[in-house]
Amino acid sequence: MYTGRKIIHIDMDAFYASVEQRDDPRLQGRPVAVGGSGNRGVVASASYEARRYGVRSAMPSLTAQRMCPDLIFVKSRFDVYREVSGQIRDIFHRFTDLVEPLSLDEAYLDVTDNKIDMPSATIIAEKIRSLILEETALTASAGVSFNKFLAKIASDINKPNGIKVITPGEALPFLEKLPIGKFHGIGKVTARKMNDMSIFTGADLKKWTEIDLVRRFGKVGRHYFRIVRADDYREVNPNRIRKSIGAERTYKEDLTEITAMKEKLTYLAGVVHAYMAKADNYGRTVTIKIKSSDFKIITRSRSFQQEVRQLDDLVQITHDLLENNQEEIDRVRLLGVSISNLMREHDGLGIQLEFDF
Amino acid sequence: MKFSVSSSELLKYLQVVGGAIASNPVLPIMEDFLFTISDNQLTIAATDLETSITTSIEVMADSDGMVAIPAKILLETLKALPEQPITFNINDENFGIEITSAFGKYRLAGENGQDFPRIPEPDTVDTVTVAASTIGQGITKTLFATSNDELRPAMTGVYFQIDFGKIIMVATDAHKLVKYTFSDVSSEVSTSFIVPKKALNLLKNALPGGGEVKMSFNKSNAFFSFENTNLVCRLIDSRYPDYNAVIPVDNPNILSVSRTDFQNSLKRIAIYANKTTNQVILNINDGSLTISAQDLDFSNEATEQLACTYDGDQLDIGFNAKFLIEMLGVLESDEVKMELATASRAGILLPVDEVDGEEILMLVMPVMLSN
Fold first, then answer.
1. If interface means Cβ-Cβ distance under 8 Å, which residues of chain B face chain A?
2. Nearest to residue A74, comparing CAs of A35, A116, A112, A106?
3. Is the CB of A357 less than 8 angstroms away from the CB of B174?
4. Chain B residues within 8 A of A356 when measuring between CB atoms
5. Where is the DNA polymerase III beta sliding clamp central domain (chain B) (predicted)?
6. CA pair distance A85, B186, nearest whole angstrom
7. Cα dist from B53 to A29, B8, B10, B205, whole Å
8. FRET partner for A124 with CA separation of 20 to 30 A, picked from A83, B12, B256, B279?
9. Above 60 in pLDDT, residue A336?
10. pLDDT tens digits, one per residue of B56-105
């Protein structure tokens, strides 16, 4: 466990929904969801009033509407979110240039050395939060610790509009008590699998050897072994380049009907589309992944000249990919949609032109 | 069969011929040199079926015969020996080879020369004779621009257009293009064909400093003969792109600059360019050329300014620095001229001083800058 660094994770509270509430007084204090309200719509962001009803981002809009009948759907305004995101980034850069944006509304900062020679990362995090409030009228939550993994978990603890510091002395006891599902990177499926192995908290996870975890979970097992010991050496990388954006789901019951598979792909396309919009990063290659009941995995992809930006296009492409490969598909256990060849990957890079032979 | 030969003399020829041997040939015997002795003449051959070279030297032999000798072990042996006469003794029954040097004896297993692939002979062919130095120049100036894209086979070779008194050699990889024309040629024919890159590389290394090269060709092969050496290669059977159509005729913006200054500047700036695209930006104004590059991934950045003569509109244009450096490298003129149109159209690179009897024109496509 290396504790020599000071890392802050800043996460805006219900970012898009808050921006909408800020700009339209009629929305204040009411349940708001940003995203499409139609059949294919997916919630991109939900206000805290809506979250009380169980509305979450990446949820199909129809489900959200059912959970919260008074829910107000607002169309997204990415140009505004992008502008606010830029304001926030400017604030970060007053303290350090080691800023790694994860999306429009969250970022890691390494403030071990910082521009105001402030030894306390907690004070910097508080300054950032108050500057954000002052300059954008929005609230943010902060996590402060000595690595990215802990900072990210911490920012979630006193959300919204809160801060949590995990000191080197607190890290291990904190992780031991932490329910396994709260570990960043352990999703529902893995959590269930761990529960079956009698792993419910960090302390339970810690009892497993690295080799056994790798045996059960593959390469990512090594990651689990490390994070529960607060070992995370990943640096805050201001130039991190994302290669792909994707979503996949494992189904309790195998899918056998093409129409059912299409429905699931429509949903996954919606999730991926919302991620793309959030990251403000679109791609040219669409891939679907199909895992059959006998665990055989096939992936099929198609690339385009231009970035796929419209949700309807993305949905249609995933359906076409499925239909064109119908004969290879029988019982489906998992479906995934991802998009690569992202435009940010090529940021600042020119395109070598060719002769027109 | 037994013969004696100078070790360094033999090595010199083997190294030229050995270039034809493929690294992983389909038949094991193609890892060998074919040695054929006839009337105190040793003919050495190597082939990869596409390209073959033969060359011959005088030896002292007691009889005629042939044998295939593993190339790698023979070359290594000769490289490790100081110059001296060596003797080959070949068992005509089992093709065992014994080499005797002043230091001792080396034995290796050969193979029956009858099993060696047949090398094509010129049959019904047209012939052109050119100076070895001219064809050597032509290869040096074009070969670098060929493509490695096996999906577009035509561009992996150099296009020869023989047109009575002149020969045009063209190479392109769709990003850059060289057209080299020389006119001191005696030919009675008009024809065109594509010669693979490998054959031209071999030819370049084998060409003598002076003398003439006889080029012959039929529908499927080209033959290059000089001194005691013959090179045969299969032509690329594909249609060459219509290169004339992409040469702009009226690029209005003309830049003149010192070739070496321009090249040296590009070499320094390229260090700071993105390693995938090698993109540099030329910012051209009246009287000054600013070359700059940046690599956002590493926060690297560089800028230089050069004196130039410029007649045209202010222009920002991106290029792959590697291409420009290579192209400038094969020109000889002290000053070069770039004829440009817009940031997305092909630029022409020309020498200001032409060499008598030859003409060279290069084209390069820009890198389209984002934002």
1. 172, 174-175, 177, 241-243, 245-246, 274, 276-277, 279, 294, 296-297, 318, 320, 344, 346, 363, 365-371
2. A35
3. yes
4. 246
5. 131-242
6. 72
7. 86, 19, 15, 12
8. A83
9. yes
10. 999 999 999 999 999 999 999 999 999 999 999 999 899 999 999 999 99
Angle between the A78-93 and A15-23 helix axes, to the nearest 10 degrees?
Answer: 110
Give per-residue pLDDT as tens, A237-287: 877 667 788 888 888 888 999 999 999 999 999 989 988 887 778 888 899
Query: Is residue B120 domain-resident?
Result: no
Cβ atoms within 10 Å of B243's Cβ, excluding its own: 20
CATH number, position B301: 3.10.150.10
My answer on whether B52 and B110 are in the same domain is: yes
pLDDT tens string B3-45: 999 999 999 999 999 999 998 787 889 999 999 999 999 999 9
**Residue A356 touches chain B, beta carbons under 8 Å:** yes
**A355/B366 CB distance under 8 A:** no
Q: Give alpha helix (H) positions in chain B.
A: 7-18, 71-79, 132-142, 197-206, 259-270, 321-329
**Among the three residues B115, B134, B165, which one is the final residue of a domain in this structure?**
B115
Q: How many CA atoms lie within 13 A of A74 on its CB side?
A: 24
Residue B371 has pLDDT above 60, yes or no: no
d(CA B169, CA B139): 8
Count CB-CB contacts under 10 A for residue B227.
Answer: 15
Q: How large is the angle between the packed helices A121-136 and A78-93, nearest 10 degrees? A: 140
Cβ–Cβ gap A349/B365 under 8 Å? no
- Angle at alpha carbon of residue B312, lines to B306 and B313, rounded to 5°: 95
Residue A322 CA to residue A310 CA, distance in Å, equals 19
B121, part of any domain: no
Across the interface, of B172, B277, B365, the residue whose CB is closest to A349 is B277
Q: How many domains are contained in chain B?
A: 3
Give the residue among A1, A158, A15 at the shortest CA–CA distance from A82.
Answer: A15
* Strands, sheet with B190-196, edge to edge from the N-terminal-most edge strand: B190-196, B157-163, B166-172, B176-182, B358-364, B347-351, B335-340, B253-258, B309-311
- Tell me if residue A106 is catalytic: yes
- Check whether residue B50 and residue B91 sit in a common domain: yes
Contacts with B, A 224-243, CB within 8 Å: 239, 241
Cβ–Cβ of B367/A354 closer than 8 Å? no
- For residue B196, the cross-strand partners are B157
Fill in the DSSP letter of residue A183: S
Tell me the three state secondary structure of residue A332.
Answer: strand
* Nearest residue, CB atoms, A350 vs list B172, B363, B367: B367
| B55: containing domain | 2-115
- Catalytic residue of the set A20, A100, A106, A323: A106
**A218 in contact with chain B, both atoms CB, cutoff 8 A:** no
Burial class of A110 by CB neighbour count within 10 A (0 to 12, 13 to 18, 19+): buried
Burial B99-128 (b: 16+ CB within 10 A, else e): bebeeeeeeeebbebeebbebeebeeeeeb
* Distant-in-sequence, close-in-space partners of B153: CB < 8 Å, separation ≥ 6: B236, B238
Minimal-distance CA residue of chain B relative to A343: B370
